[in-house]
Amino acid sequence: MSAKDKEFIALDWLYQEIILDHYKRPRNFGTLEGANAVVEEENPYCGDHIIMHIKTDGKRITDIRFSGHGCAISQASASMMTEKVKGMELDDALKFAEDFRLMMRGEKPFPPEGELEDLDALRGVREFPVRIKCATLAWDLLQRSIIQLLKTKDGGDLG
User: Fold this and answer.
1) C-alpha closest to that of 93 among 62, 120, 70, 124
2) Which pLDDT score is estimated for 127?
3) 36-40, 69-73, 123-127, 154-158: which range is least confident on average?
4) How far apart are CA 57 and CA 125, in angstroms?
5) SS3 (DSSP) at 35
6) Do the domain assignments include residue 156?
7) CB of 89 within 8 A of CB of 59?
8) Could you tell me the residue range of the domain that residue 114 belongs to?
9) Sorting pLDDT into bands at 50, 70 and 90, what band is 159?
10) Is 104 exposed, middle or buried (0-12, 13-18, 19+ CB in 10 A)?
């Protein structure tokens, strides 16, 4: 086995461990009192169900939580997403969500290894088209909620 093959196997193992860690110990899991947006979606193919709660100060995501159930990929992706976007300005989070979705669909290249931090672990999902929806479900919810929040002009409550 070549050194490159060993490196690939080690990296694959590390990515699996990161996904399992976020699945077993999700970050920002639960509900959020006083959320400006609460959105929900289900992936009928896999049975994933996510409810996302977002709190903003009008310009920035001040807190974000998710709840629900699903496969390891959907739950880990939601956990990683909340860590990545908490504190981001709404416009930046919206752009990052779209970029991530494009990367997962193979329509945009991934940045160099390490730039996405834990999200790098989801790179391999792109090789399994049926699982891409699992990895992007939370990101779809994030985009939908930010678009609605921006329509309120001040990041206020939806509705």
Assistant:
1) 62
2) 87
3) 154-158
4) 34
5) coil
6) no
7) yes
8) 3-151
9) very low
10) buried
> Beta-carbon neighbour count of residue 154 at 10 Å?
12
Kindly state the tokens that stand for 105: 């669909």
Dihedral sign computed on CA atoms, order 77, 86, 100, 136? positive
d(CA 94, CA 84): 12
Residue 57 has what pLDDT? Answer: 95
Cα separation of 35 and 117, whole Å? 27
pTM: 0.87
Q: Are 73 and 135 in contact (CB under 8 A)?
A: yes
- Chain position carrying tokens 């959907």: 74
Burial class (CB in 10 A: 0-12, 13-18, 19+), 61: buried
Is 159 within the bounds of a domain? no
CA–CA dist 125, 110 (Å, integer): 12
Rounded CA-CA distance 44/86 in Å is 28
CATH of the domain at 138: 3.90.1010.10
